[in-house]
Amino acid sequence: MALTFTRHPGPKGYELRPRRSDPVHVRRGVPDDWRLPAGCKPRFTLAADASGASPLAVVVRAEGGRLAVLTPEGEEVAELRLPSRKKRWRPAYEVRLADGEVLRGREGTVPSLVLWLVLLPFALLYLVALALSDSPAGAALAPLRTAWKRPGDVFGRAALKESARGRFRVREDLLDRRVAYAQAVAKYWER
After folding, report:
1. How far is 106 from 96, CA to CA, in rounded Å?
2. Is the pLDDT of residue 142 over 70?
3. Mean pLDDT, the chain, whole residue set
4. Of 163 and 191, which is predicted with more confidence?
5. Residues 6+ apart with CB under 8 A from 115
6. Can you list the positions of beta strands (E) in 35-140?
7. Residue 70 to residue 30: CA distance in whole angstroms
8. Which long-range contacts (CB under 8 A, 24 or more apart) does 184-189 make?
9. E strands within 55-150?
């Protein structure tokens, strides 16, 4: 079964809106009564309510700069690894699940890059129109999709996909929805 959700930034944090389900609220830090493991710094909390009192998961920065996704009981569900801050060609994101399974996502899948090359002449016309207007040009150069898959599984099913419109789709039989929510926020959270 696939779960589809969108990310909506707000004044106090993010809100993830799953289709046909209650929204998930993202707040900076951790709840007041939360005990952090030693050596961890709080990043953000995924909660079912706007106040953040009932967390679904907490994301903390652990040793080595990695992000750990913790359950309300304090158990580590997954580890998120983000690419370096330097812009590279097709930066890679990595999700390491607690059972040892690894999912890697690169910005811009091969089919989306081929489509982009086919549509390049039209994109150039669009960029000329953008230059004549006052719209931000960075929006036109964003990759079309990102897909998180097992390494070496080029044509297999993706556990998590992000579309160009900011919609995420997670296959719940391959990835826990809390980990998908955490990855969706961590990708865009200021570092």
Report:
1. 15
2. no
3. 81
4. 163
5. 144
6. 41-47, 55-61, 67-70, 76-81, 92-97, 102-107
7. 11
8. 184/5, 184/7, 184/16, 185/7, 185/14, 185/16, 185/26, 185/44, 185/46, 185/59, 186/43, 186/59, 186/67, 186/80, 186/82, 187/82, 187/93, 187/162, 188/7, 188/9, 188/14, 189/43, 189/44
9. 55-61, 67-70, 76-81, 92-97, 102-107, 145-149
Six-digit token pair at 13?
């944090």
In single-letter form, the type of residue at position 136 comes to P
**pLDDT for res 77:** 92
Quick one: CA dihedral 59, 60, 66, 70, positive or negative? negative
> pLDDT at position 124, please?
86
Q: Strands (DSSP E) along the chain, which ranges?
A: 2-9, 14-18, 24-28, 41-47, 55-61, 67-70, 76-81, 92-97, 102-107, 145-149, 160-163, 167-171
pLDDT at 135: 46
pLDDT digits (tens, 9 = 90+) for 99-137: 999 998 888 788 888 887 898 898 788 878 766 665 445
pLDDT of residue 1: 62
